[in-house]
Each structure stands twice: as C-alpha cells, then as structure tokens.
Design a protein that fits this description.
This protein has 464 residues and is α/β, with parallel strands linked by helices. The chain contains eight helices and 21 strands.
C-alpha cells in the first residue's frame, strides 16, 4: 500500500530539471537589468541548443464579437558551442544559428516565434509538451541532439532594495520608486503612451528606472475606464501640461529625489507630452523621447468603446491633446475615414498634408526648451512616422545652434514598439510581413535593446 502511495505521488510530481548534470543559471530575469542566462556543466566545445517557450494570452474576437483570451505560445531557440570550461554565457556569446543573431543577452527572450503545435516548428523538441507551460509563464530548455537535458522555469521579477509606492491623490496618480539607500538621486517623470495609465504598468516602469539609480514617478495622466483608476480623465483631450509641476512638487518632498536634476521620459503620446512640457517648464533638464512626434495631434477618447457610456458627457469645443493655462494647443485634426490607409502612419501624414501651411501652427518648438533631448524613432513606424519626425525635431535643434543638446537615433526597419527593455517578444501582437511598409520585427527587437541602453546613457550623462 505504501509503495502505491509513493508511486502515485511521483506520478503527480511536476517534471523536474532534466539533466546529465547540465544546469541552467540566471533564468530569473530582473526588470531593467540585462539578462545573464548561463548553461553550465557541458562538455567543452560541444554544441547545444537553448530554447525559451513562453505562453502568452491575447484577446481575440470570437463568435458574436465576444472577446476571449487565447493562449499564444512563442518559441525562441539558438545553437551555441560551449567554451573550454563547459559553459555557454548567452550575454557574451553569439549563436551559431537560431531565431536571433549576434551577441544579444535579450535575444532568447524577444525573438520567439508563435506556434500551435510541433508541426509548426521543427526546432521544438519532440518530447516537449506545450500544455506543460501555464499561461503567463515560460521555461528555458537545453537540448543535445534533440533530447532535453535541462529545463527550468523562466521568471520575471522586479529589482530589490527599492522604495515603491502607489500614489492616488486625485489627478496626481501613478507609482513612485527609488533606491532604498538613504541617498539623494536624480528625479525622473515617466509618461505612458496612448495605451493609457495602469497601476501595475506604472509601478513596473518606475522600478525599471529606479534600479539604475533614479527617483522615478510614473504618472498616470489619463486612463481608460477598463483600468479602474478613479479621479483622472478617461480621455486624452486638452491634458493640462502644468500637471507635471504637481508631479515635481510631490517629488520635491521626497528625500530620495533631487529635483534640481530632473528628466522626463515619454514614449509615443508620452513623448509628445514631454516635448510640449519642456518648451514651457524650464526646470526640465533632459527629455528622452521614444517614438516622438514633431507636432501636436488631435486628442482622443471621448465616446471610446473602452470607456463606460455617459449620457451627460459634454464634448469639448477643442480636441487638442494638450492645454496650457486652460488654452488648448494648436493641433492637427484627425477626423475622417482611415480604412483606405495601409497603416495609421499614412492616415496621419495625409491629415498633415491636408492642413497645408496650417500644420506649422501645431509644430512643437523644442529649440525653445532648456532641456537636452534624445530622439529615438522607428524607420517603419506603423502608428505614426516617428523616424521622420525625430529627424525634424533634431533638425530644429541644430538649426537653432543647439546640436550639442540633441541626440538622434532612427532605427531603419523598426516599428513603433521600440520603447521597452528588450524582454517582451516582438511577435506577441504582430506577425511577420514581407510588405516593406510594415515593421521588421527582428529589427524592432534589436532596436528596443539599443534604445534602452541609450536612454540610460543619456540620463546618466545629462543628470548625473
């Protein structure tokens, strides 16, 4: 009887790390820090294959337009040759073959390809069971001649030794993080894009920067009703630029934050916010603008399906994205049918051209700011033409004799999604396309890593 119980328990035990003494280290990824995945106890010089399988959930419209979560596994792999000590250090070694190329510590994380079954991917080990990976989780595998010899869980966590605080004071909403070392650190205000504010996302973003020595406030300046954040707008219309002064005042009361050294990071609409703010707020020392715009665009969100229906909602007279002292900034309207355009970018540029010389009123005069700027654009941005607009912004600075305060990087082939830390796969929401108007998803992955490194180097240079 006892033997039967033991046998039953063994049958229920999860698959352990498989190994002929092969070990996987560094699979605990810390947000904002470069991964250091290492394979140990191999035979010197032998060739092995390292895999990650990550299980995402994406929402798709099903029968009767009912949205439902769908499991979407992504598989990345790379072949390596062990060094003389029987190790493969993924952050120091270029693969022989795989889903990415070149020395890239993030490659095994961002380069995953979607799959449904083993028939879709001949590189996936035959004995690997996709159902063994729960939604939201991942694994690292090592195979030798097609056989799994090591397996461990892939985890993602936040940095340690940080002060972390959620802030909900009416319109002053977001998350704060700073090193818990008793020292004073340069301050950063972090601005999300059109995805809107989110408590968890704000906390993760603040911690990502705090891990590098900043007192960071990720500001939720608007949020869709689906995010359930009370007290802040549910539409991005006439956003008061001066709200950033309230964020600065909050930071000034924190002993960890030195607001005499203050930078602003923003991506997409957050970059637009950072630019218009820097023009009007002289205490902003540095702006990192990821996938930026050179003009103010029409706002959005009133009557959006992501918000609750309100019968008493009064539409504003002006639909600018931003306002200053109660007055909406000049903007390019975005009314009209988008269906005839291959991407959102084409529609935006058509609306700019339609306005003619009037579009100049919506231009952002960044050369009037005190701040230094970092411009990061995608050459095949499918949301708006961030590459071309980054070049225009840099040209304004140089024409004004401020070239030493303007740094430009446009990533040919990359799309809009270059503003992460390199750990999120580029194919979760997009598919590969041979159309030259669409982003190259590998170029986007490589650009994300380079952009993150440049953002850190820029703030280190301008604020520290």
């Amino acid at each position: 009887m006892k033997a039967l119980i033991v046998a039953g328990l063994l049958a229920l035990t999860p698959v352990p790390v498989l190994a002929e003494d092969v070990q996987i280290a560094g699979a605990d990824i810390v947000a904002g820090l470069a991964p250091q995945i290492e394979i140990e106890q191999l035979d010197p010089g032998e060739r092995v294959r390292v895999h990650t399988v990550r299980m995402f959930e994406v929402w798709e419209s099903g029968p009767e337009n009912v949205w439902r979560p769908i499991r979407k596994p992504l598989h990345a792999w790379a072949d390596f040759r062990a060094d003389t000590e029987g190790r493969v250090r993924l952050w120091q070694t270029a693969p022989i073959a795989g889903t990415f190329s070149g020395t890239d510590p993030y490659g095994i994380l961002w380069s995953g390809r979607p799959l449904v079954s083993h028939a879709d991917d001949p590189f996936l080990p035959a004995q690997f069971d996709l159902a063994s990976v729960p939604a939201g989780e991942g694994v690292v595998l090592v195979t030798r001649n097609g056989d799994i010899v090591a397996r461990t869980r892939l985890t993602f966590g936040n940095p340690e030794n940080l002060i972390v605080q959620q802030v909900a004071q009416g319109r002053l909403n977001g998350a704060y993080a700073a090193p818990a070392d008793g020292e004073s650190h340069p301050a950063l205000i972090l601005l999300h894009g059109s995805e809107g504010g989110d408590r968890a996302a704000a906390e993760a973003l603040a911690q990502r920067f705090a891990a590098h020595g900043y007192a960071a406030f990720a500001f939720n300046y608007f949020a869709w009703d689906l995010s359930n954040i009370e007290g802040i707008p549910n539409a991005h219309v006439n956003q008061p630029i001066e709200m950033l002064t309230s964020v600065r005042e909050w930071l000034a009361a924190r002993p960890e934050a030195d607001v005499t050294r203050l930078g602003v990071y923003g991506h997409s609409k957050g970059a637009e916010y950072a630019e218009v703010a820097a023009v009007r707020l002289p205490w902003i020392d540095a702006v990192a603008a990821c996938v930026p715009t050179d003009v103010v665009w029409q706002g959005y969100g009133v009557g959006d399906e992501r918000n609750r229906k309100t019968s008493d909602a009064e539409p504003p007279e002006q639909y600018s994205s931003f306002s200053w002292n109660g007055r909406p900034l000049p903007y390019i309207p975005l009314d009209g049918d988008r269906s005839g355009f291959h991407t959102n970018t084409g529609f935006y540029e058509a609306k700019r051209a339609e306005l003619g010389a009037g579009a100049q009123e919506a231009e952002i005069p960044v050369e009037a700011a005190n701040a230094s700027f970092l411009w990061l654009g995608g050459g095949r941005d499918e949301v708006w033409a961030s590459g071309d607009m980054a070049r225009k912004l840099d040209a304004r600075m140089r024409l004004a004799g401020r070239g030493s305060q303007s740094e430009l990087h446009v990533y040919d082939g990359a799309g809009h999604g270059i503003c992460g830390d390199g750990t999120y796969p580029t194919r979760v929401w997009r598919s590969d396309s041979s159309d030259p108007r669409d982003p190259d998803l590998d170029a986007t992955g490589r650009a994300t890593i380079d952009a993150w490194a440049r953002i850190l180097a820029f703030f280190a240079r301008t604020l520290k």
